[in-house]
């Protein structure tokens, strides 16, 4: 008995030669990534001065506020990643 030949792997986006991007597209993507990094740093630095007022007004402890800050940063970063993926898929 002969064993059946293995099936070829499914085609993926990585198959084939890499796409060559024009200089303008590369610069646009670089600007997009720099802006996303700036936006992330700006959001985090804008949140830090508000922490004491949030702790007093909501009656939470410092450890609870650390969890809230971490959750905010994680949520913002995940949405930023999703938006960048969408933009990259449109740009390609």
Describe this structure in words.
The protein is an all-alpha fold. It has a domain at 34-46 and 60-92. It is built from 3 helices and no strands. It has helices at 23-47, 51-58, 62-91. It is elongated. This is MFS transporter. Keywords: Membrane, Transmembrane, Transmembrane helix, Transport. It is found in: Membrane. The chain crosses the membrane at residues 27-51, 71-91.
Cα Rg: 22 Å
Given the C-alpha coordinates, what overall shape results?
elongated
SS elements, strand count: 0
Secondary structure: helix percent? 55-70%
Fraction in beta strands = under 5%
Structural class, from helix and strand content? mainly alpha
- Continuous helix count: 3
Distance between the termini: 48 Å
Largest sheet: none
- Contiguous runs where pLDDT drops below 50 for at least 5 residues: none
What is the average per-residue confidence, as pLDDT, rounded to a whole number? 80
Question: Secondary-structure element sequence?
Answer: HHH
Subcellular location: Membrane
Main location: membrane
Membrane topology: Multi-pass membrane protein
Protein name: MFS transporter
Topology:
Layout (H helix, E strand, L loop, with lengths): L22 H25 L3 H8 L3 H30 L1
Helix pairs in contact: 1-3
């Amino acid at each position: 008995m002969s064993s059946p030949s293995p099936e070829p792997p499914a085609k993926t986006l990585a198959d084939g030669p890499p796409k060559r991007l024009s200089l303008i597209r590369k610069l646009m993507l670089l600007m997009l990534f720099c802006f996303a990094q700036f936006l992330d740093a700006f959001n985090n630095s804008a949140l830090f001065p508000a922490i004491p007022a949030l702790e007093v007004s909501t009656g939470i402890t410092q450890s609870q506020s650390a969890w809230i800050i971490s959750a905010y940063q994680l949520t913002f970063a995940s949405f930023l990643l999703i938006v960048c993926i969408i933009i990259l898929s449109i740009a390609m």
